[in-house]
Amino acid sequence: MASQDDLHQPILNEDSEQSQPPEPEPISAGVHGVDSRLEKMLSDTELPWFKRLRLATWIELKLLLRLAAPAVFVYMINNFMSLSTRVFAGHLGNLELAAASLGNSGIQLFAYGLMLGMGSAVETLCGQAYGAHRYEMLGIYLQRATVVLTLTGIPMTVIYVLSKPLLLLLGESTAVASAAAVFVYGLIPQIFAYAVNFPIQKFLQAQSIVAPSAYISASTLVVHLLLSWLAVYKLGMGLIGASLVLSLSWWIIAVAQFVYILLSGKCKQTWSGFSLQAFSGLWKFLKLSAASAVMLCLETWYFQILVLIAGLLENPELALDSLAVCMAINGLLFMVAVGFNAAARPEHIRVNLLENSVRVSNELGAGNPKSAAFSVIIVNLLSFVIAVIEAVVVLALRHVISYAFTSGETVAEAVSDLCPFLAVTLVLNGVQPVLSGVAVGCGWQAFVAYVNVGCYYVVGIPLGCLLGFKFGLGAKGIWSGMIGGTVMQTLILLWVTFRTDWNKEVEMAKNRLEKWDDKKEPLMKSG
């Protein structure tokens, strides 16, 4: 066991300017990059209580924002590309907006959740290899993940091709299903962009390389907006043009990040070229990635199902249009909470508690229960305050906010009626994802999965159907059901978090680290 001094290291090393990745501490050293000042400040009883609180809050905010800010930026940029595509489609007409929304949320989100979830397994593999000084294995794992995700994309393509009969089978109207199918056809290349992009993202994040992804995403957004304008309005390509440009934009991101890997000195040790080893151990990787995919899909498919249900209402085009506008706004602003969750998820895996939140796991692994608990409080308060501000802005703009997506006055009125529900959802989203990140940070993945299933699929969806159809509340009823499921999930996670024994979590983190001390080999051996 390392000494107390050894445990107190900076939470994250600054990106090195050298031509190779920074040398990580051995796993056995028990290093969990943390700032020891926070625990010392919280334990210093000689200082007045208010001064301790003020100084500790400032330290935690600096640590947190350094992690969350880049993540928020990248997530919002990538989400805005999809949102802008729906905006271009919406200005073609209400039918086109409904089609793009159904195609995006009803079909495309299925592949997105599955691919992102499976790609998350690269976090585990690359994280262990990097921590064990097996740098050459990162490139192998990257290639192996790309192969598996590409193969997974083949059945996904079949689903996309059959999107029209599938939507008709689910009860969607012929007009909306036909238009949505056209939009979905243009998203087929995006499936394979996901297969390349997500493993590359995790490969870079395992080495704490985040800035290049932010620059690439921002540049691609500019190109995406220009090409979308040309394809939709100047060339008259309509829905198929909008979706093809979105696919192209994702490929630009994937290729640009791969070029960075080839040219950057920081990846010289972790990328040694293409190898046939990538084709070994594919089944083992598939089993590992399936576990990651299930948890994420349970959450993303919840919203997908709600959109499909909205298409079954009496006036499906209006219901889909109004929900589409609100869901798009919710999705964009949700990225702020996801960014804080990312500071709570294993983006910087060198801490080697691969399933743990960065801030919470850092402090637990370093034996700092007070800092871990304090981090939970600060991140929730900050995210909640931001969410309240977002909700107030949405309510203030409720009568005009839809005109960014469509010029239809009927849709604008429907969106205005839904904005109070959107505001409540935004506030909940300011807390719920962060609490989920904390739960994952404490190793409660199975518990979170059970909570998601119960709250979303046993409570949220049935309640939404009951209110929407039986009581004739339409889109409002469906959204109310979603809110009900999310409220129950949030309350359960709050209750569990408040009852957490942080000293016990410290001991569990130490035991987990000691268990991993003997694992010097990658989880999956090459060839």
TrEMBL record:
UniProt-recorded Gene Ontology molecular function terms: antiporter activity; xenobiotic transmembrane transporter activity
Q: Which terms are listed as keywords in the entry?
A: Membrane, Transmembrane, Transmembrane helix
Residue spans crossing the bilayer: 63-89, 109-130, 142-163, 175-197, 209-232, 238-264, 285-310, 322-344, 377-401, 421-440, 447-471, 477-498
- GO BP annotation list: xenobiotic detoxification by transmembrane export across the plasma membrane
What's an example GO cellular component term for this entry?
Answer: membrane
Q: Where in the cell is it found?
A: Membrane
**Residue numbers spanned by region Disordered:** 1-30
**What topology in the membrane does the UniProt record assign?**
Multi-pass membrane protein
By sequence similarity, the record places it as follows: Belongs to the multi antimicrobial extrusion (MATE) (TC 2.A.66.1) family.
Name of the protein in its database record = Protein DETOXIFICATION
Protein source organism:
Morella rubra
Taxonomic lineage is: Eukaryota, Viridiplantae, Streptophyta, Embryophyta, Tracheophyta
